[in-house]
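During the second half of the funding period, the structural biology subgroup turned its attention to how the target accommodates small molecules. The most pressing case was coenzyme A, which had performed well in the primary screen but for which no bound structure existed. We therefore specified the complex as follows and requested a full 3D prediction, including the ligand pose.
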Amino acid sequence: MPAVVLVSFEPDNEVHVKELVRQRQIAGFGADAVDAWREKVRRGVKSLQWVFLASPEDPTTPLPYVPAVPEEGAAPQPLFAPVGHIAMDWEAAIGLPEVASKEEGNLYFTSLYVLQSAQGRGLGNLIMTAAERLGSSPPFNAKILTLSTWDSKNFCAEADLPNLREITDWRNAKELWYQRRGYVPFIRAASIPYIPEVGKDGTVFTLNSVYMKKKALELDA
Ligand SMILES: CC(C)(COP(=O)(O)OP(=O)(O)OC[C@H]1O[C@@H](n2cnc3c(N)ncnc32)[C@H](O)[C@@H]1OP(=O)(O)O)[C@@H](O)C(=O)NCCC(=O)NCCS
């Protein structure tokens, strides 16, 4: 797997905005939040990073990603074709400073996404490592790195939710992945923003999220 290069999202760059909407449409949620995200980037409470594959000759040179499956379509500007993105926020929808706060140095990773055709090949780990390094360095200088994902207890036998799906759902394995990366759970709560789930019998319900954290990386100067 090649290295990845992070490139800052520009909120007033039409190519960036179109590509973000496209990737969030493919992801299945968040496309309608892009304008609010742009505003947060302008206010300095959000940084969104594009993820590019790096050139094998020079790990700092971003290469356009060509999806292996035509259904994934193409980026609006073929030379600007990132493989995914991740946001780094000083504000969280849950509104708790222990999740996100510039004053307290709590930096919240959110909206991590890798185009489907590139998933499962190690990119997610490379992105998290790159984002953790970036967030632990100037100008971020985070003290604590936080994130949220689906609570792995959503479908356990004691869960107070309709047991409508299989526990093997990859969404419920993400908490364990982040645990393997050193994050520890500290809040379990209903997902915010509210994401309605429709069960097999038509029941609408919501799942819990888990908020996790770890100390920022100690990097050599
Ligand atoms: C989550 C996501 C970014 C991971 O990216 P990726 O490139 O597929 O990740 P990797 O290949 O590096 O795998 C990361 C870990 O997840 C595990 N994993 C990957 N796909 C999996 C699957 N379908 N089922 C179970 N585990 C899986 C890998 O084993 C790996 O764990 P390990 O390194 O401890 O062995 C990607 O799947 C994605 O964009 N999903 C849709 C959006 C999303 O869920 N974002 C995260 C919100 S919290």
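Two results from this model are relevant to the next phase. The chain has a mean pLDDT of 90. Residues 4-215 form a domain with the Aminopeptidase fold (CATH 3.40.630.30).
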